[in-house]
Automatic annotation (TrEMBL):
One of its GO terms (cellular component) is pore complex. Keywords: Cell outer membrane, Ion transport, Membrane, Porin, Signal, Transmembrane, Transmembrane beta strand, Transport. It is a multi-pass membrane protein. It comes from the Bacteria. This is Porin. One of its GO terms (biological process) is monoatomic ion transport. Its main location: membrane. The lineage of its organism: Bacteria, Pseudomonadati, Pseudomonadota, Betaproteobacteria, Burkholderiales.
Length: 161
């Protein structure tokens, strides 16, 4: 009988406690607009005046040994109805839906995310692509902002991220 407690005490250092976190985040940017043109006027709710309305979930799990697994699910949102922006597709995670593995080597990310060609101009945009800084010119050039089934690699922060 004394062997069982000794065995359990010997295994205690082998147990690894993972620490994870999940964050719910979002922005609801809804306003009231009054437009008058040609003798007619309209007052209505507007969406995404200074920022894109969105709802998201992100989380990470410490795997030990300097490795972290993560996920990010982010959906566009209509502030006046609570639905996705496109009524045909409903509520979906069209903004970002990724899983990742990060460590001292950097980060490997899989799923729906920004394109590599969009990261550079977005990084230097003080408005982060919202409001007055919306990426209209970028889209006019035919470059996609997001792409599905992406495999992305990011350098470690010590090398510029």
């Amino acid at each position: 009988m004394k062997k069982i407690p000794m065995l359990l005490a010997g295994m205690a250092p082998l147990c690894v406690l993972a620490q994870g976190s999940v964050t719910i985040f979002g922005v609801v940017d809804t306003g009231v607009a009054y437009v008058k043109a040609g003798g007619k006027s309209v007052t209505a709710l507007t969406n995404s005046g200074a920022s894109y309305s969105r709802l998201g979930f992100r989380g990470s799990e410490d795997l030990g040994g300097g490795l972290k697994a993560g996920f990010w699910l982010e959906a566009p949102l209509s502030g006046d109805t609570g639905q996705g922006l496109n009524p045909a597709t409903g509520f979906n995670f069209a903004r970002r839906a990724t899983v990742s593995l990060a460590g001292s080597f950097g980060e490997l990310r899989l799923g729906q995310d920004y394109t590599a060609s969009y990261y550079n101009p977005a990084w230097f945009d003080p408005f982060q692509g919202t409001g007055i800084g919306q990426p209209t010119a970028f889209m006019m050039l035919g470059s996609p902002i997001r792409i599905g089934n992406a495999v992305s690699y990011f350098l470690p922060r010590s090398l510029g991220g």
